[in-house]
Structure formats: C-alpha cells, structure tokens
Amino acid sequence: MAQKTLTDELIGRQILLLAILLIIIGISQYLALRFVLFHSEARSLHQEITVLAPIIHHAMVKHGALNFHSLANLLVTRLESPGVDVIITNRFGLLIASSSPFSTQVVPPLDVTHTYFLWHHHIVVDAPLGSLAHPSGYVWLLAATNSLDRILVRDIELFAFLGFLSLAITGWLGSLSVKHSLVPLKQIRDSTVRIAQGEIGHTTMLKNPPKELGELGDAINVMSLAIKDLLDQEKMLSDQMRRFVADASHELRTPLTALNGFLTLMSEDHLTEEEIQRGFQAMRQEAQRMARLVNQLLTLSRLDTAHETALSMHPISLEEWLNGCMPLIERLTRDHALQIETSPVTVDADKDRLTEMLLNLVENASRYTPQGSTIMIRIKREHPYGLVEVIDDGPGINENDLPHIFDRFFRGDPSRTSKSGGSGLGLSIVQALAHAMNGQVEVFNRTPPEHGAVFVIKLPLSSQESPDHD
C-alpha cells in the first residue's frame, strides 16, 4: 500500500472539514426552511379559521345542529380549496361535515394550545365554535404537506449538488494552494537530503516562507553550518594530532638515534678515552634534551585535559616577581643587553608557571636575535589586564608565520634543527598556560622604523589591585 503524501493528507483534511461544515449548514438550512414553510402555511390556515369559525358558529346557533347538517356540507363545499380540507363536528365530536378522506375513519385530535400540529402528513389548525367553555362544535382546517415536502426535497437536491461542486472546486484549488505552500518544505527536504549525502555546510534560502517553515529552514541552516564547523575543527584537530605525533616521534627519535649510535660505537671498543668522554657528554646532552621534550609534552597534556589541577593561582606583584626572576633571566641574556621597565601591578596567576612562561619568551628572544642586541622586559597595566612584555630588536617574525607562531612544533624557518631552533613547544606552552590562567598571549612585529618582535602576556588584574592605579 502506497504511503500517503503530506499534500494528499492536507487536501483530504480540508475536504473532510468542508464536507462536515456543509452537512451542518445543510441540516440547519433544511430545518430552518421547513420551520418557515410550515409556520407560513399554518399562519395562513389560522387566518382562515379565525374568519371561518364565527360564521359556522352563527349558522349552527341560528339553524340548530340538525338543520345545520345540510348547510354545513354546502359550507364545506364552498370553503374547500385545493390542498385544504375542512372538518366540522358538534360539541360531542360527532362529524357534521367534512371534505377530508380521513374524517370518515377518525377525526383529528383537538389541540387548541398550539398554533398548529402535524397529523397524517397534514398541517392541522383547529378552533372551537363559540366560546371555549361552551362550544357549539369544532372546526379543523387541514393542509397537505406534499407540496412543502417537494420544496424541501428540491432544496436538498440543489444543496447537495452545490455541496459536491464546492468540494470538487475546493479539492482542486486546495491542491494548488497546498502545493504552493509546501514549496519551502520541499526545499528544506532537498536541503536535508543533500546534507545527508555529504554536502555539509549546505544552506537553503527560502523565499517568503510561512513563519514555522522559515524557522525550520533557519534551524537546519544553523545545524548544517554548525556541523561543518565541528567537522572542520575535528579535521583541524586531527591534522594537528597527526602532525603532533609525527613531530613528537621525530623529536624523540633524534636523541634516541644519537644515543643508540654512541652506544654502538662504544660497544665496539675502538674509541679512545677522550672520544668516550665526548660520547658520554653528547649522550648526556641528548638525554637531557629528550627529558626536556617529554616534560614539555606532559605539561601540554595536563593543560589540555585538566589545567585546573595543574595550576595554583594566587595574587602576584609582578614587580616583586620579576626581581626574583632576574638571576635566571640574566643567565639567558648574558650575550644581550637587558632593559627592565616596571610599574606596580598585581595579577592572579601561578607564580612558577608564570616564571616558566617568561623564561620561554626570553630564551626565544635570545635565540633568534643577534648577540649584543637589546631585549626589554616591560611590566604595565592595561585594564583589565596586567601586561608582561618581552621586546627584542632582532629581525622580527615573518608575517606569514605570525598566525602559526604558537602552533605546536612550529618553526618559522624549516631549515632549523632542534639544536638551533628548540623543540617548537615553548611558545605553545606559553599560550596554553596563559589561557589556563584566564589570560592570553599575543605577538606582533614592532612598527617601522623600529624592528624586532613583541610578545605580550596578558593576565587578569587581581581583586586586590588598588583602584587608584587604574
């Protein structure tokens, strides 16, 4: 059995509702028309009997019931009209005169409390002759309902014909209307099919849709774009993970290869004592480099998964903290000129991690700038952050490399080896630590004619920071 379409369902419901409405209207019209026709006929009979009853009563009183019998038949013959019968009885209910074929068998009941009543497919109006308390007899006027029934039947037939015609026209026009109204829904269906087939990010612009379909279309467009963003992010993370694993494997393999090579040479026992000592020294350096790389990877892993447990946040006076870091900084910048600019600023941070961030930036500046050049460390306030800036006057950073400078294992110069360029994780750790402390880190080149790079660590000001400093 074929499944019904939404168009068929909506059109069918329209026709069904219209059919129910037409039936209700038809029944109401039939009852109203029947009431009007019957009351109109009864009113006409009532007007006639109002005039006729006193005349009959006067004749019965004047001539007596017995002499009135022949007069009554003559009167009935004179009063009888097409479709209207007359029945006259005395006060005891005995038939005196009649033009109705029913009166030979039974006389209509007497009902003076209602305007009219129905009896044997006739509308009957009755009246006493004389006073109601002492009548001389009774008279009935009977009008057959056949003509009225024919009018009602013709009305029903006409209404049924017009009703079926209305249903047919409604079905045709409703089909056009529903199909036009469902065009946006068809567009939405086609859009979802395309999305399901792999066109992630596909959107559909609907033209003047109904409010509900417009909202549905917008929701599907937002969903499609959101899925595309998620897939793009997933692809980017997947690519980063593959590159990260490859780079980490390469970085770890290099010292391991060196260690294995030295051990192989030493096992052959062809080396002099001096060569063995140099080998041990090189192995120690490679082991330290490998340990440093593993520690950096562990630091990034902890910051990626649960940075809350990796930090201990406290209010820190940047000026006092920098003074405590000076011995470490001077050792890293012994081949450079060092300048310090400070101001009283208090931030919320992890002191040890902040020191690690600063040393990474200072080491990076000293590694990539010429000997004798100047490295400046500046502390200042830029509400709502406290800033730690590391500024050098080296060659700066290639503009194409700036967006990727904090990527893991990224090196601006691909020709650099790990010996000259580090592991490529220092700046990634700086960024991860800054984000973990609810801050951020930025990098940009100095504005010409000055040259060099500027790294800025931004950390939220502490709640203990004096408002007078703002």
From TrEMBL:
Domain of life: Bacteria
Subcellular location: Membrane
The protein's Enzyme Commission number: 2.7.13.3
Keyword Hydrolase among record annotations: no
Keyword field: Kinase, Membrane, Phosphoprotein, Transferase, Transmembrane, Transmembrane helix, Two-component regulatory system
Pfam families cross-referenced by the UniProt entry: HAMP, HATPase_c, HisKA
Residues annotated as domain Histidine kinase: 247-463
Main location: membrane
PANTHER family: SENSOR HISTIDINE KINASE TRCS, SENSOR HISTIDINE KINASE YKOH
Record protein name field: histidine kinase
Organism: Sulfobacillus thermosulfidooxidans (strain DSM 9293 / VKM B-1269 / AT-1)
Upper classification of the organism: Bacteria, Bacillati, Bacillota, Clostridia, Eubacteriales
